[in-house]
Amino acid sequence: MIDFFSKGGVCMWPILACSVLALAIFAERLIRFAMMRSRGAGLAEKVAVLLVDEKESEAIEVARESGSSMGNVLIKAIGVKNKDRETLETVIVNSIDEEVRDLSSYVQVLATIGNLAPMIGLLGTVLGMIKAFMVIQQMGGKVNAAVLAGGIWEAMLTTAFGLAVALPVVAAHSYLTARVDRYEAKLRDGAVTFMKSIA
């Protein structure tokens, strides 16, 4: 594997960097989502019960202590719960959008890496092919099949490596995007629970 990597040329290094960056982003987002799920579980219902019992300060404290996206949305909503309906809804929508943007941090980078890795691989292949044909030209047109085949397969390594990185990265991007969408739906459900508690 190391031998293949070394023969792939200089373009193998940026592809490797892309793979390491993508893995780091994926792991960090997975940890973040796991923490958000555990911290925000059942929070909207707890806060709603406290608000029904007119324990607003306790509700704010519970939401703050959760350290979750749901808690952040509820704190802002409680702060304007006595305002008109339009203001309340605007604050809730903006708060949810803000939390979703935070949860989506770096996820778009995965999409960029998924597009970039095969392009870098293709560039490496083109450069390798150019090098192979330059060798043929230097041989005075006497084509040596072994030399030509060796140059071509070495040139193709970067494309293969780029695709090998891009495929799981694209899958990871789709998975994380789906997780963000599901969490956004949970935030909206929590907001509905909150609205019912103050109706």
Explain this structure.
With 199 residues, the protein is mainly alpha-helical. It has one domain (2-117, 165-197). 86% of the residues lie in helices and 0% in strands. It has helices at residues 2-7, 12-40, 43-52, 56-66, 69-79, 85-103, 107-138, 145-197. The model has no long low-confidence stretch (mean pLDDT 86).
Portion in strands: under 5%
Unreliable segments of 5+ consecutive residues = none
Q: What profile does the largest beta sheet have?
A: none
Mean pLDDT: 86
Quickly count the domains.
Answer: 1
This entry's quaternary arrangement is single chain
Query: What is the strand tally?
Result: 0
Shape: rod-shaped
- Given helix and strand content, the structural type is mainly alpha
Annotation field: number of helices: 8
**Helix proportion:** over 70%
Helix-strand string: HHHHHHHH
Evaluate the radius of gyration.
Answer: 27 Å
Distance, first to last CA? 64 Å
What are its keywords?
single chain; 199 residues; 8 helices
Topology:
Blueprint: H1 2-7, H2 12-40, H3 43-52, H4 56-66, H5 69-79, H6 85-103, H7 107-138, H8 145-197
Helix pairs in contact: 2-7, 2-8, 3-4, 3-8, 4-5, 5-6, 5-8, 6-8, 7-8
Short description:
This protein has 199 residues and is mostly helical.
